[in-house]
Amino acid sequence: xxxxxxxxxxxxxxxxxxxxxxxxxxxxxxxxxxxxxxxxxxxxxxxxxxxxxxxxxxxxxxxxxxxxxxxxxxxxxxxxxxxxxxxxxxxxxxxxxxxxxxxxxxxxxxxxxxxxxxxxxxxxxxxxxxxxxxxxxxxxxxxxxxxxxxxxxxxxxxxxxxxxxxxxxxxxxxxxxxxxxxxxxxxxxxxxxxxxxxxxxxxxxxxxxxxxxxxxxxxxxxxxxxxxxxxxxxxxxxxxxxxxxxxxxxxxxxxxxxxxxxxxxxxxxxxxxxxxxxxxxxxxxxxxxxxxxxxxxxxxx
Length: 301
Prior knowledge:
Layout: H1 2-25, E1 30-35, E2 40-48, E3 53-65, H2 70-73, E4 83-95, E5 102-114, E6 117-130, H3 136-150, H4 155-168, E7 170-171, E8 176-177, E9 181-188, H5 196-208, H6 210-221, H7 228-247, H8 250-257, H9 262-265, H10 286-294
Antiparallel strand pairs: 1-2, 2-3, 3-4, 4-5, 5-6, 6-9, 7-8
Helix pairs in contact: 1-5, 1-6, 3-6
């Protein structure tokens, strides 16, 4: 069964990623296994006040149900009345050091079935980097690793997923991107033009490169000293992360609308955040570098 194969992979991916992050941080992630009253459950792995990570989570969820909420079928009437399974691994890591970027990654699978009808399924996922005080070397490494994951399916496919990420992680009400992008894809296989094994292969490739994309960056920057100025700017920029996740993020919205577990869905929220009225960086400041040179689409790879 397709769903069982994907679930086995996702559970293994979560285990491998958490093991790598624990080895890097030096402290263990807490584990919280949970069940969803309406069907399914998951395993939430969270670290708070770690040696390196101020807060981070790596969540496996497997949600099942007899019918999708109207918000999920409004643009896909073929899903109405079908039973569904949605599963995935999603992570967000918030380092304490402002010179180390926040990162997000997720891979997910959805399948809806009804008696006597062919199943409707698709994959989605991606990863993106959100630096506060960026280094060009780090951003180029992240994008090059993303490219390596996807380029076996063609350079055009990589550019498609890179551009999709730039469009998706964009705060329309701020007219600015959340970070420096990476990869994003959704509905991969939904139109029936892609074989399951091919779509699953691309999704696995994205999930499997995450540690290679992120850990070398934070290894280089974890010992850099910082002060209150840098922490203050980090908290301000984290506000953009909160705004995006609560207003635009598909996974957050689907999870909340489908009766998902709120604690696990909102594990992506940073622990310390600040908002200011009409703030702008000073000309020539390190903070202006982020806005001027990095918060715009570029061919980093």
